[in-house]
Design a protein that fits this description.
The complex is a heterodimer of chains A (about 210) and B (about 475). Chain A has two domains: about 5-85, Methyltransferase, Methionine Synthase (B12-binding Domains), Chain A, domain 1 (Orthogonal Bundle), CATH 1.10.1240.10; about 95-215, Rossmann fold. Chain A is built from nine helices and five strands. Chain A has helices spanning about 5-15, 20-30, 35-55, 60-85, 110-120, 135-145, 155-170, 190-195, 205-214; strands at about 95-100, 120-125, 145-150, 180, 200. Chain A is elongated, with a radius of gyration of 18 Å. Chain B is about 45% helix and about 10% strand. Chain B has about 475 residues and is α/β, with parallel strands linked by helices. Classes of the chains: A alpha/beta (about 210), B alpha/beta (about 475).
Chain lengths: ~210, ~475
Amino acid sequence: MDAEEIYKEMADAIVNLDQEKALNLANQALKEEMNLLKVIEKGFGEGIRKVGDLWDDGEFFLPELMSGAQIMQKAVDVLTPQLQSSGSERQSSGKVLLATIEGDIHSIGKTIVATMLRANGFQVIDLGTDVKAEKIVDVAINENVDIIGVSTLLTTTMLNQKKVIEILEQKNLRNNFKVIFGGAPVTQGWVDECHADGYAENAVESVKLAKSLM
Amino acid sequence: MGILRPKVALLNDEYKKKIFEEAKHILKSLGVLFENSEAEVLLKEQGVPNDNHRYYIPSDLVDKCLTSPPHEITMYDREGNVHLSLKDDNIHFDPGSAAIFILDENSGQIREPLHQDFIRFTKIVDQLLNIDAQSTSLVYSDVPKSAQDWHRLYTTLKYGHKPIVTGTFRKESFSIMNELLLTCRTSEKDLAAKPLAIFDACPSPPLSWSDLTTQSVIDAAERMIPSEFISMPMSGANAPITLIGSITQHCAESLAGVVISQLAKKGAPIIWGGSPAIMDMKHGTTPMGAIETMMIDIGDVEMGKYLNLPTHAYMSLSDAKIPDAQAGLEAGMGALLAGLTGINMISGPGMLDFESCQSIEKLLIDNEIAGMVKRFLRGIHDYGSPFAEEILKDYDNTNELLSHPSTLQLFRKELFLPSPIIARMTRDEWKKAGSRSSRQRAKEEIEGLLAKSPQKALDNLKSTELDKISSKYL
């Protein structure tokens, strides 16, 4: 079987949500000393792009989107040690910090976004829920992230999203980071009012948004 | 099936018996008008007393005729595969039939339908997952009047594969329609064994069976083709104002149909159907979306079930003139009540304006309603206990259950997944998509559905044969 055929099988394994097959193929790629960057890009990566397309077309739904992304991540995890030792790590799409803002303990939307971003090559630091704006900014500075993603479900805690931008402005660091918002009450109007860099309506859109900001 | 099959009922056994006995008494004492010579011969052969065309049917003959019709009818598709089964509390939807107008979704105008409209309508029904059968739903004006009944069946067979609810407008048409149906079967025997079409037969209230409709029942019975009785008492106008009186009249008219069909051919398949209505006491109209109309429908069907016959009703229709909020609420209530009653064939999706106007936009919205009703009736399923504990143990590993194996395995079964016609997007997504109403979103689906390949391609030979028959009689 030539490399192209194996890439296709890898993509199909993701689309078919067949974790066992995906992991076997990842191990086969290691054994056969394939070009692992190509394996990720042309094999599993192509699969997750197709999963996104199927979601766009209304054929796939959130459980399939999440499972596809998780299988993709597990396959990449199999390849990562070898990639690191060979010094040819997968090129990161960018580094993203995610947190649900202070006062809000809702995590499901943020978890979905984190999974989708990781599957699409982003490094994700997930600080969890009920995180103070000050902490978000501190970690963003220390980790030198590209994008800060702040999530909220409640209209009452929504105001705290704005605080992240205000702190960055006070520290004169606003231009060092892209700040994006997520969560049910967030609208373009709110993003404009806060001078944030964008928001997404769903997990697939969030990947497109993050890529557009890099 | 779920733990319980959700049900609704308006009558108890005591009242069903009372209604049945009174209906039989009506047939014996008031009699039924039959204007069909073949039916009159059949009744006279049984010694049924008559006064001119009015026949006074003895109760023992009714009882005898009730012993022979089948309790269930399996319908087959055009290609001869099992498609649906009219039995127990199974439910199926088909579009409301024989509309003389169409709401043109492009012009927004209500106008007379053309053949092309019915081709489009049939192709759409072929694609809709929750509409189980076709119906000859539009009466189009661009064929000769003498062809207006059978030509619709020809068109349905050409462009759709699902079983068909149809009917005759002229006695002569039955044989043409039978000929059309036979193109899809190997013989009359094969057509009887694998029914493809149901013929509606509508008695005229009160207590009268016209020549045409009686002939249809006899012709269908002789060939073991299912007949669907559509008794349509109008409460307060040509039926008692009381709901129970209208149900009793419906029962009497339908029992007369049972007698004629079983005398024509013992064991002929029949469906206990109806299209009753109250009369709107202000406008003098026959509102199909009235809650009392639905209550009569439910009572009628309960009587059909009491007599162990497959059932039908005209529900899920609306009297609104466009697919607006009234259309949604009337169609939604009707469909859910029909589902809860377990009506085997529910005719109505797409229909507006007292059964006079079809709308593809409404049909697509009703397809969503039908899907939701079917989901509701599947009830709450037990997949084995513990119901939640094991799943919740896994939550801490992932902070979500979307990717849990149980979610992936069961979400398509547990949830009805609506089409984009049902707005569940965020407000901003809705705004970005043009802030459209459900009616507008339904309209947007139409061209995509029409562009799809047919669910089952029509065999070339059958297609040619159908065309030949159509050319011969046009």
